[in-house]
């Protein structure tokens, strides 16, 4: 905590200029301004944060983001990257049917990184957390060759959490939120372009359907996952965890006009962005047949007994040959 | 969770050979074997872990470790580095007077890393957690140029947590646990030696006084911190957070024989290892005068009103000119 930092470091200051404790002072101030969090008895600055919890379930999830692998500084600015890092983790709590409450952030970066970049990142991160009522309660900073961000999110579940393993043959498969937009934006950026702007923006700052998880849990969802690896890859995670077959009906998937345009320009089938894309943090869930789907949820397929090859995913009744998502090694 | 992995990957398998989901399968199995954790309703493998909490305080802390900065693969084996990574975080909960219960681990590494190294790391990590009854409940794996480990620990406090900010003039300053041993071991390794073995081992696998934090809290400690930056640097954190002056009496500090030997061999004052070293995860606390110190705690100084320059730390009544700890940028 210590002394009160100046309003902002000099425009050309680096992390080395700011120093570890200067950086922590600035981060602590930004976080307290933007998203202090509820039920936080002790925030950043001690050996640990202290949170007041009600008796019940706490959900916890951790993600890593590495520069060059999960983001590029030339493809989005620091504020957007901060939003995206938070969204990725808030979405994991959403996918359990929980409410995100508290986050910690580990931030490793080169000493030469402009301090403004780091503080803009923190501001974007805290703003995204504040949008769902969550607060940043702790973290760590250190030096590394490439920017590496480690986020842990804690949330509360008022109902039983919705796992990946509860899908039953006969259930319907449903999706909520944009799907494939961010993958289209990423494809555009990878080719050196900046438009369609709506897709690039979707990649830079995803808009996860943060209310959809609790609505689905309340409506009786049997399994749920947030689409982070890719629609088919994540559907496969549900299929394997539940021991079922999942079939996606491609005609039910919304392919927005900008994705059609990217398909025409690149020669790619725009459906591949929808089936293989993962950065929108849409939610995928299964519901008992006959469930009135909550607002925003669209039926996109069905759950059946596993096929002769065991649990897995098909598209329109057949194995899918295109890319289904990404792998980390 | 998917298929059951083989007992062990081939001796020469890399992370790339194992693949993301193969690695996760192995890690999940090791963690479940070694330290499943109590009150874990859903462990690794879903979007988030689910924990059953009692109404009360939850403490949470995050740390990053970067290869080359916080550890070197040629200075310790993977099991020891795993133990050390866990110890560093368990110690933060200890310093609040809490009981560590659950941890998440983010693990980023080059695809060429031997899979055995990663799994040995996880085993050492889980073993250290199990030693205090804590379990690994989640994590993330991804690729990066250098091994980077992000740990978040959650714990419970049965009494009010002991902060850094509660020290009062008139309190006594006390220390529990080895102090300076790991710094001595690090100095030896940095010069290319492997002895005194007891110091090298202290660096490789610290032995934090895990019971001391709760004992101190129960005894009425007014402030507490774990020594991770250095004894004087961390005493200064307490002094600034509490707005007090802290004086360390050097004659009360135990300088073990192996540190004297390292001092003789290197020409360094062995006291510098004790005053500036940080990797033992000893605990530093303040208690009201007259408190019967709990077992293992030794009085090493006193708390007073801040001096004319404001809150800070002195040694034997004078400013200290030597190294007081390390900085991260």
From TrEMBL, chains A, B:
Reaction equation(s) it catalyzes: thiamine phosphate + ATP = thiamine diphosphate + ADP
Sequence ranges of Low complexity compositional bias: 308-317
Binding site for Mg(2+) 3: 47, 92, 226
Protein's name in the database: Thiamine-monophosphate kinase
Residue sites binding ATP per the record: 139-140, 164, 228
Source species taxonomy: Bacteria, Bacillati, Actinomycetota, Actinomycetes, Propionibacteriales
EC number(s) from the headed UniProt entry: 2.7.4.16
Cited NCBIfam families: PRK05731.1-4, thiL
Binding site for Mg(2+) 4: 47, 61, 92
Pathway of action: Cofactor biosynthesis; thiamine diphosphate biosynthesis; thiamine diphosphate from thiamine phosphate: step 1/1
A GO term, aspect molecular function: ATP binding
InterPro entries from the UniProt entry: PurM-like_C_dom, PurM-like_C_sf, PurM-like_N, PurM-like_N_sf, ThiL-like
Protein keywords: ATP-binding, Kinase, Magnesium, Metal-binding, Nucleotide-binding, Thiamine biosynthesis, Transferase
All copies of domain PurM-like C-terminal, residue ranges: 168-260
The keyword DNA-binding is annotated on this UniProt entry: no
Pfam families in UniProt: AIRS (PF00586), AIRS_C (PF02769)
């Amino acid at each position: 905590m210590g002394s009160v930092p100046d309003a902002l470091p000099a425009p050309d200051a680096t992390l080395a200029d700011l120093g570890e404790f200067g950086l922590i002072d600035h981060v602590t101030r930004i976080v307290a301004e933007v998203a202090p969090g509820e039920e936080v008895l002790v925030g950043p600055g001690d050996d640990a944060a202290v949170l007041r919890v009600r008796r019940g379930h706490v959900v916890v999830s951790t993600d890593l983001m590495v520069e060059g692998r999960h983001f590029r500084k030339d493809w989005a600015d620091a504020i957007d990257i901060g939003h995206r890092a938070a969204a990725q983790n808030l979405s994991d709590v959403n996918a359990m049917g929980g409410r995100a409450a508290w986050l910690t952030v580990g931030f490793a970066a080169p000493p030469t990184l402009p301090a403004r970049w780091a503080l803009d990142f923190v501001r974007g991160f805290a703003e995204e957390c504040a949008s769902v009522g969550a607060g940043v309660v702790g973290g760590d900073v250190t030096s590394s060759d490439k920017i590496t961000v480690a986020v842990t999110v804690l949330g509360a579940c008022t109902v039983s959490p919705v796992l990946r393993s509860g899908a039953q043959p006969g259930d319907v498969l449903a999706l909520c939120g944009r799907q494939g937009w961010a993958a289209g934006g990423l494809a555009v950026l990878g080719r050196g372009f900046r438009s369609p702007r709506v897709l690039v923006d979707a990649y830079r700052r995803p808009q996860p359907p943060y209310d959809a998880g609790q609505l689905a849990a309340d409506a009786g969802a049997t399994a749920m996952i947030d689409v982070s690896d890719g629609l088919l890859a994540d559907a496969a995670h549900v299929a394997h965890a539940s021991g079922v077959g999942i079939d996606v009906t491609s005609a039910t998937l919304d392919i927005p006009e900008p994705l059609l345009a990217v398909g025409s320009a690149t020669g790619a089938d725009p459906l591949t962005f929808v089936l293989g894309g993962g950065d929108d943090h849409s939610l995928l869930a299964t519901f008992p047949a006959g469930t009135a789907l909550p607002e925003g949820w669209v039926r996109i397929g069905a759950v059946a007994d596993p096929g002769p090859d065991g649990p897995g995913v098909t598209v329109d009744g057949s194995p899918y040959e295109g890319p289904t998502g990404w792998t980390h090694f």
